[in-house]
């Protein structure tokens, strides 16, 4: 799909930046990379002087964190490189996120759900995706996240590194 990123120029007139979200298969370590190009079918590469910030897919926040028993509750998720084909599930708080089974250790009604209405990370103040859960018992749960094509479920941690509890 053609995409025209928003360009932000510095007031000094000498620098500019833009954001572009590309999502693809693979395992990536977050960090900064150089952007190079090849002019001879990949034999030689030249540094463009541009850098690219690579962000691994992750969920870092959710809202709301309370649900009512036997009622639909849409939970919104915030994070990096989240797509509408990623999944979230709610498991017993004493369990750990592991494996790739959608039903493993779930709370009743917390089965894996595809994220919907996903937005790119360019909209940082907006949620990146949501899922609707209908829990059938009172209790505490933790949130697990599985990126499409990922190796297994990972626990959703807050930016402070603590588990996010849904009650």
TrEMBL record:
Top-level taxon: Eukaryota
Q: What is this protein called?
A: Uncharacterized protein
């Amino acid at each position: 799909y053609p995409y025209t990123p928003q360009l932000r120029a510095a007031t000094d007139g000498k620098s500019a930046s833009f954001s572009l979200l590309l999502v693809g298969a693979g395992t990536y370590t977050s960090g900064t990379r150089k952007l190079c190009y090849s002019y001879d079918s990949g034999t030689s590469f030249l540094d463009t002087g541009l850098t690219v910030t690579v962000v691994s897919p992750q969920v870092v926040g959710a809202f709301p964190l309370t649900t009512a028993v036997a009622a639909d509750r849409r939970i919104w998720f915030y994070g990096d490189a989240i797509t509408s084909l990623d999944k979230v599930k709610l498991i017993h708080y004493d369990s750990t996120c592991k494996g790739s089974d959608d039903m493993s250790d779930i709370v009743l009604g917390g089965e894996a759900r595809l994220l919907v209405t996903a937005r790119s990370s360019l909209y940082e103040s907006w949620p990146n995706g949501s899922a609707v859960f209908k829990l059938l018992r009172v209790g505490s749960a933790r949130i697990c996240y599985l990126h499409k094509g990922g190796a297994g479920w990972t626990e959703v941690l807050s930016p402070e590194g603590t588990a996010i509890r849904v009650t």
